[in-house]
Amino acid sequence: MKVVITGISGELGRMVTHRLLANGHCVLGIDRRPWPDAPRGVKMVRTDIRKRPAEDVFRSQRPEACIHLATVTHVTTGPDERYRINLGGTKMVFAYCSRYEVKQVVFVSRHTVYGAAPDVPLYRTEDEPPLAGWTFPELTDLVAADMYAVSGIWRWPDTATAVLRIVYTLGPSQRGTLANYIRGPRVPTVLGFDPLFQFLHEQDAARAIAAALEARLRGVFNVAGPSPVPLSVLCRATGRKNIPIPEPFFTRVLGRFGFPRLPPGAVGHLKYPVVVDGSAFQQAAGYSHDFDESQTMESFVYT
Fold first, then answer.
1. 3-state DSSP call for residue 175?
2. 261 CB-near residues (< 8 Å, 6+ apart)
3. Could you tell me the residue ranges of all domains in the chain?
4. If DSSP codes are grouped into helix, strand and coil, which group holds residue 280?
5. Tens of pLDDT, residues 153-180
6. Which CATH class is domain 2-298?
């Protein structure tokens, strides 16, 4: 199968690429960032997904499938650019796929689109609405991109669209939202709260994306790994020390004293859990994770 991957130069994109190549697929890559040591046979186009050269890839190569990974978070990009990339870029990808008759699209979203709140079910199913735009304003653009991708399931019935809401990832690459939060030796936590955190090994995430592609899934799926663990356990198991801070002072210390920078909306995610039920994906894709919670945390031990 000929597959185009947007955002291919990111760590997850590279892992997915290696898996697809090992399974005999042909891979095309689109990214603004370079990948100098890309595997032989991968055709790279360095461009913005919203630009004409990106469309040229779809028009000239006629891929059978697309994996859309080209979204960004508040960690790396400002709000205006996030909106243009996440929502504007997602709209363009689906336009290309419709225009050039791509048969399958896998949109990689995040489980955090459900939002954190004290009065929601512990395990969220795919029937739960994404509420993070209300509880975490800095995720509004990602929620909008997720919902647009979901609309593609019925808007373009000839294309099998799978929206994967994947939990946090951890691993040796040291990349990702959760990795950025607990990167240092001391992790700021909200005094009086110890929420469950749900994550999977980055290699399991790459394998899940490849599995969704090869199973030709259609619909919305939560992708989870091992059992969630309390934040305090996550800190201790990865060699960090959690520093409880009273909530009125929490945002004042962020970005100072060696603590990570976090937007105000992130505080809710450090108080209440965002945990999803991944059983539907496991059954539909025949998927199970290879790394348990202990192995995943060991891969991110602070040194």
1. coil
2. 75, 254, 255
3. 2-298
4. helix
5. 999 999 999 999 999 999 999 999 999 9
6. alpha beta
